[in-house]
Design a protein that fits this description.
The complex is a heterodimer. In chain A, a hairpin with a 6-residue loop joins strand 2 and strand 3. Helices cover about 55% and strands about 20% of the residues of chain A. Chain A is α+β, with helices and mostly antiparallel strands. Chain A folds into two domains: about 180 residues, no CATH class; about 180 residues, no CATH class. The two termini of chain A are about 25 Å apart. Chain B is an alpha/beta fold. Helices cover about 35% and strands about 25% of the residues of chain B. Chain B is built from eight helices and ten strands. In chain B, the strands form two sheets. In chain B, strands 6-7-8-3-9-10 form a six-stranded mixed sheet, with helices on both faces. In chain B, strands 2-1-4-5 form a four-stranded antiparallel sheet, covered by helices on one side. Chain B is globular, with a radius of gyration of 18 Å. Classes of the chains: A alpha+beta, B alpha/beta. Chains A and B meet through helix 1, helix 10, helix 11 and helix 13 of A and helix 3 and helix 4 of B. The structure holds adenosine-5'-diphosphate (ADP) and magnesium ion. Magnesium ion binds next to helix 2 of chain B.
Amino acid sequence: MRPADLLGSSWSAIRTHKMRSALTMLGIVVGIASVVLTVGLGLGTQKDVSDQIASLGSDLLIVSPGSSTDDSGMRGGFGSAETLTLADADALASEIAVPDAAAVAAEKTASVSLEYGESNWTTTATGTSVSWVDVRSRELMYGSFFTDDDVTAAADVIVLGAETAEELFGSTAVVGQDVTIDGTQYEVIGVLAEAGSSGDTSLDDLAVVPMTTMVESLDSSGASEAVQTIYIKATDADALSAASQEAQALLLNLHGIASVDDADFTIDVQDSLIDAATSVYEKLTVLLTGIAALALLVGGIGVMNIMLVSVTERTREIGLRKALGAAPANIRNQFLIEAMILGLSGGAVGVIIGVGLALALPSVLGSTIVISGLALVVSVVVAVGIGAVFGVYPAARAARLAPIDALRDQ
Amino acid sequence: MTSTLSTETTMSVPTMPEPVISLTGARKTYHTGDIEFEALRGIDCRIYPGEYVAIVGPSGSGKSTLMNILGCLDVLTSGQYVLAGEDVSTMDEVALASARNRRIGFVFQQFHLLASLTALGNVELPLVYAGVAPAERRERALRALDRVGLADKARNHPGQLSGGQQQRVAIARALVTEPAIVLADEPTGNLDSHSTADVLGMIDDLHAEGATIVLITHESDVAARAGTVYNVTDGQFVGAGTEIAK
Ligand SMILES: Nc1ncnc2c1ncn2[C@@H]1O[C@H](COP(=O)(O)OP(=O)(O)O)[C@@H](O)[C@H]1O
Ligand SMILES: [Mg+2]
């Protein structure tokens, strides 16, 4: 039998039983569409997170209080310990001790209630130094950041995030206005340009004040020397690990700790955050893909089911074909190719629907979906493979039918 | 028995060609659960090129079983079957399929046409399994349809044809491979009297053109058109083949 004729007889069987073929395909369509969607969603979320982290700057070191207790990144007392101080920040800013650091900015935060006329807004106030704007890669929309003189004088000046200004004043053009915190008036000298969000936290809802102002007026923790985070910007991305080692050596020395294992602080590289986030989303992608694979398995069983029904229904046809000279292999191949064509068309339709949803959904869900060409090709190949695998058993059944039994079947 | 026959053959008709069909001691036993049923109980038979043979007998006598054996659709439990010089008794499934394809043309009582194919497509089917190229296939199938007088119905599907026409399409399909033998099992069983005459006339014509035909029937007037009639009862031939004088 010629291969073209084999293909032709499979194709004509599919066309003759349109409804049944469509039903057989349905499971594959749903399975492949969900694979395309879930993989796309996983990759998209991963990309979103990487983009956000990358936007923070890849030449950044983040020093946090508390120690790293194990390799998985779980930290004992992370963020709550008071082991990082203003003195540490000053020392890290020294060009001699940490030559690969371009700039250092410590952050000390407190929750504050801002008032303006009748309106008030609760946000996080961050006390820091002049280098913060550079270190955190921020820009100002209006006005300017505070100066070293403001820091020295512990001036009552404040820089607001765009969202904070909008919530409090209903506008962002508020430079020169005064806000009141605990009865003290602070002059708004700048408004930060929008930076989006990092995970759950908005980067635009905050108030920035000189560190001295924070310590003297806003901090109520009783630990006036403690800071939450020290950011170190390396001279360039290549100097990042050198800067990290220098900072680690300095802090161990300052804290009188002999071994790295006993360190009461943690230095994170921005890249490691990306890695951690990536691994989380890789796990998510694997999970979603697993669910989609389950959907495909169900689709495959559907193919087998309906192919078995088809074999039973077409017993007489199989018998006749055998009587006319079809060898068992001819019959087997016809059913196998039928199942593979169903897999192929189901896969193709599934890809089209999946991509269609992927284009439509982001505007609804607000999440990015990344369509990878490789994933689409693999999906279709998998669909054909499922047709083949789940078609084998029905095809073998058809091939084994004895022609006389098949012909007697009424 | 074999020696007797061959002696007879050589002596009386020295120019006789090789038989198309040669059955020797053919037995077929069916097993249904624990029950054994012997449907063929030692049949010997030679059919020569150009013969028109009818096999008659009551229902359940083993006619269809014999037809299945002759058509290579089933194999003997014991005995030997030689078809056009090839020993079919020892063939595997693949070889049997090929033997059916090359040597046998079937005409069934239920026509057994595929509803999804046109008349032409149905007639082409044996050639598809023979691996004949589409152009040649088409031409040969059209010629076969022309031979049964249905060239103008080539594009029709079986559902659009009368019973008689459908059976003629089936006959065209049986002819298209130029088989050694045409096997017809109750070919008029599902036809009205007019179509019956039509189809039997067609088979007469084929015989006149040189085809070898084995027709199975339980109607004696149908059998009367054949050259030789074998009577089957309980899986055995009763008496020798009766030559019909024309
Ligand atoms: N596949 C089978 N299994 C068991 N018994 C069978 C089978 N086919 C036929 N028989 C039996 O063999 C006998 C002959 O059947 P068959 O050849 O169909 O007779 P006919 O065609 O002359 O009516 C019947 O008694 C029938 O019941
Ligand atoms: Mg019968």
